[in-house]
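REVIEWER CHECKLIST
Item 1: Sequence provided? yes
Item 2: Single chain? yes
Item 3: Sequence as submitted:
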Amino acid sequence: MAEKTEIGNISHFIKEWRGSKHMLKREVTAICLLLCLGLIWFGAGSHSRTETNAFAAGKSPEPNESQCGQEETIAQIFARQGSAVTVRKVDWGVEELPDRLWAGIEQWQADYADSPRAIMGYIELLDEPAGQVAEDCLWEYATIQHEFGQETFLVTGTGIYQVSSRGSNEIWQSCMEELLGSSSQWQLSKSETERYIHGLDFEHYEMFSDPPYGKLELWYQGVSVTFYEGSRLLAYHRDREDSSSGERPDSGRECLWFRQKWGEQELDWQFCATESLTGLPYQDLSRHFRTLFPGLWSCAFYTRETEEYDARPLIDLMTEDAEYVYYCRKGQWYQVCIRPTEDVGGRQGLFSSKGYSFRYDLGYSDQESYSFQVTEQGDITETDQIQHRHYLEQELGPGLRLCFDCRMTDEYRGELFMDYTYEVAVSRPGEEEPFQILEVSSAEWEPFSFEDINADGWLDLRVLYYYGANGGTLSFYLWSPSKGEFVCGPEELGYFGLYGIDQEKRQLHMHYHGTAVSGEEELYQWSGETDCELIRRFNHNETNERREMHIEICCYEDGQEKILSDYCYPMDEYMERDAIWGIYTLDFVWEREIELPGQEGICILRYAQEKSFPEDEDAEETEGKREMLDYLFLFRQDTYLICALEHQVAPAAYTGLTWDEEQARLTVSYEGGEKQCYLWDGESFIIPPDTGI
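Item 4: Structure as written out by the authors:
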C-alpha cells in the first residue's frame, strides 16, 4: 500500500506540472525528475527485497529525526574506520535477542560450513548508570562475529539498533571503542570502554572443534559465562531503572537472571548485589555461611595475593540444591546463585562446579586459599592454605571418629622447594586435650588424607611430602586398634611412583617408573596390625641403547630370595609378550624340573590358579560362568620364558597336580573330583581333544 501511494503522488505531481505555461520545458524536466525518482525508489525497493538477515525479520518502524541522527552517527564512526556498514532500528524487543543471536549463529554455521573460522558472539550488559538516566541510555550490546563480518545490536531505552559491519575484528573493536566513548547519549570513560569491548580469539577456539563452531557468552560485572550449542542461553532478564522516572533499582534487588541448558539439565542463574564481606577472616565467613545455608557442604575461597587474605576473596559455596558464588566489583559485592530447575536427587546429581569460570574472568588463581568440606558421612576437612593450618574430622572405622588439628610449626628452604613441619594433634570429638601428637613434614599445599593402607578395615593417616613427574614421597601413620594410637609405617614404603592396594589379599603394590617401559615393581604382604614384608620384586630396564629389556623377577619366601626370571629379551619380543608380566603377578603354587621332547636341558614348569573377575560384576549368574582360571608357564634353566598357557577356565579350586614324565602330561585335580589334562605337543601345552573337564 505504501508503494502504491508513493507512485500515485508522483503521477499527480507530473499531471499538475504539465498544465503550466512552460509546458514543454517543464515536461522534459518532469520526465527527468520522474526517471531519477524511479531509480531512487527502485533502489530502495531492491534493498528492502534483498534483506534476508536472520536477526531483522519484520518491518522497521518509520524513522524520526533523532533516530536518523543516531543511525547516522553510528554509520559515520564505522565508515571512518574503513568498515562497510549498514545501520537500522529493529522493531522487536530485547526479550527476543537470545533467540535471534542463536538463529544468526546457526545460519552462519550453515552459510560458512567450509570456512576454517569459528563463529562466536556475546552479550555485554553494561554497569548501572549513576544519577539521572537519559531516555536513550545504552543498557547493553550484543554481537556475533565470523572472520571479517559482524552483526552488532545496541540495546537502548528507545529501541535496538542493528549494525551490520564488514571488516576485521580489530577494526570492529576500534569502532566500538570510539562509539561508546564519543556518543553523547552514553559517553563512557576509556577504562570502561576497554572493559566492555572483548576481542574474540578465533584461533584458540578452533583448536577444540572442527568448524563450523558456535559459542555465545554473557558478560556482566566483569564475569563471562560461556554457552555452546549443547548448553545454550535460553532467556535472560535484567531489572532496569524506570526511564521515565529516572529511579535506580534498589541495591539489594535482583539485577540479572537467565537460564542455561547444561547437558541434560536446565540451570537457573541469578546475579544480585549483596552485603559487603570485605575485611572478615575466612573462618568467620565460613561460620556465617554455614548459618546462612544449613545445607552447605563445600566452601572455597580464592585470592590473587597473600596480602588479600582478608580483603577481597572470591567465594564458591555448594549446598544440597544450589551453588553460590560471591565476588567483589568496584567495591560492590555480588552473589551468583546457580540452581537446577528440577530436583536432581542430592549433591551427587547436582552439577559439576561452574565457579571456575568466575575465577579466571576476574583474575583469580585456581589455588584455594581456604576451603571447608563435609562429606555425606559427616567427615569434615577445613584447610587454610595461607596459614598452613588443616583441621579434619574423620571416621576411621565403625564407632571411631577422631579430630586432627594440623598446624605448621616451622618452614625452611630446601634444595628444590619449601619444607613445612606440622604438629598434628589427634583427639576425640569433645575432648580439648589430644591423646597423641605427631610431627610430620611436607612440601605440598594439601598433604593430609586418609586411606586403608594396610587393608585391615581401619583408615590410616597418609601425609604426602611431595609428588612430581616421576613419583613422590609420603609417610604412612597406621592406626593400631590394640594400642589405640597411630604407628609410623615402614620407611621403605615412603618413596613411590604409583601404588595400589588389594584389600582382599592385604597386599600393597608399589610401582617406580623411570621411563614409559622401564621401572621397578614391589609387592608387600601385610600381616597383623602393622607388619609387612616384601614378597615380590620386578625390575624391567632398557639396555644396549634400548634394544633389549633386562627382566629380573624375584620372590621371597621365609626371607629367602628366589629368582624366577633374569634374562635380557629383545625389545620387540618383550613388547609383544604380555605373559612376562604374569611371571610377576601370579602366585605359583606348584613347580617341577622336567625334560621335554624338542627342548635342550632341564626345563621348569610352574602352575598358578586365580579367580576370574567379570567385566560386569552385577551380571546375573549363568550356567557357563566360571570363577577359577588356570595358568601354566614353562621356562628354560636360564629363566627364558618358553611358552605360557593363560586364562584357561577351571571347574573349581585345584586340589592336586600330577606330572606324567613319559606322556609329558600334567593332570590337575579339582574340588568335586573333576580333572583336567595339559599335554606337551612339542612347542606348547595344549588340552588333548579326547579329554576335558
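Item 5: Key structural point noted by reviewer: Residues 322 and 339 are 5 Å apart (CA to CA).
Item 6: Recommendation: ____
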